[in-house]
Amino acid sequence: SQQGEEDPQALSIQEGENATMNCSYKTSINNLQWYRQNSGRGLVHLILIRSNEREKHSGRLRVTLDTSKKSSSLLITASRAADTASYFCATDVWRNTPLVFGKGTRLSVIA
Amino acid sequence: EPEVTQTPSHQVTQMGQEVILRCVPISNHLYFYWYRQILGQKVEFLVSFYNNEISEKSEIFDDQFSVERPDGSNFTLKIRSTKLEDSAMYFCASSEEGSGNTIYFGEGSWLTVV
């Protein structure tokens, strides 16, 4: 299985701190994407990183990818209470193959 | 900003009844997907659809499930005879191309089978 697994399962931080979530996967991938899900809501796409990329930034988000370790990390800087959500990584192995999601990290940002 | 829309947002149905979940993908997208998320669990792939046919499906997507694109805008998921274990949030998604492009998800349809 190429399933991604996020680590930690739950993370609680103070507002203003940085949050780092990790994702590991088992097989070679084509792309890795990070999504956010507020409780009971849909999945919001955050960032896509291709297998030949090592780092991408988007606003307060920074994603790294280490294909040799089959892992990725999502860093949210200067966190806000509104960042409270579950964060999922999802991978695909080749064109037209479906995304496979990990179990997610539940992030709580305390004001 | 274009978005994937889903209806209904929540449906309660009796076990054994048929359910149709509807989705309007983003208009210029060509690939369509259904995923589901049982409460508290991970998001699971059900089926992908391209060029008016299923391109891939998971083990979950058995004979009780079917998908259809009845017109140029809608994409539906039908569950013929619902079971209690079908209770979940069902997400429709679409992308401009296949794997490698961002996949956009709708807000989901909560299905509760009683």
3D structure, described in words:
- The complex is a heterodimer of chains A (111) and B (114).
- Chain A contains no helices and eleven strands.
- The mean pLDDT of chain A is 91.
- Helices cover 0% and strands 55% of the residues of chain A.
- In chain A, a hairpin with a 2-residue loop joins strand 6 and strand 7.
- The model of chain B has no long low-confidence stretch (mean pLDDT 92).
- Chain B is an all-beta fold and 114 residues long.
- The interface between A and B is medium-sized, with 27 and 28 residues.
Distance between the termini of chain B: 36 Å
Oligomer: heterodimer
The H-and-E topology of chain A, N to C, reads as EEEEEEEEEEE
Rg from alpha-carbon coordinates of chain B = 13 Å
Strand content of chain A: over 45%
**SSE class of chain A:** mainly beta
Rounded to the nearest angstrom, the distance between the terminal CA atoms of chain A is: 38 Å
Number of strands of chain B: 11
Tell me the structural class of chain B: mainly beta
| Residue share in helix of chain A | under 10%
Protein traits:
heterodimer, A: 111 residues, mainly beta, 6-stranded mixed β-sheet, 5-stranded antiparallel β-sheet, 55% strand, globular, B: 114 residues, 4-stranded antiparallel β-sheet, 0% helix, 50% strand
Describe the secondary-structure layout:
The complex is a heterodimer of chains A (111) and B (114).
Chain A: E1 5-7, E2 10-14, E3 19-24, E4 31-37, E5 43-50, E6 55-58, E7 61-66, E8 71-76, E9 85-92, E10 100-101, E11 105-110
Parallel strand pairs in A: 2-11
Antiparallel strand pairs in A: 1-3, 3-8, 4-5, 4-9, 6-7, 7-8, 9-10, 9-11
Chain B: E1 5-7, E2 10-13, E3 19-24, E4 31-37, E5 43-50, E6 53-57, E7 65-68, E8 75-79, E9 88-95, E10 104-105, E11 109-113
Parallel strand pairs in B: 2-11
Antiparallel strand pairs in B: 1-3, 3-8, 4-5, 4-9, 5-6, 7-8, 9-10, 9-11
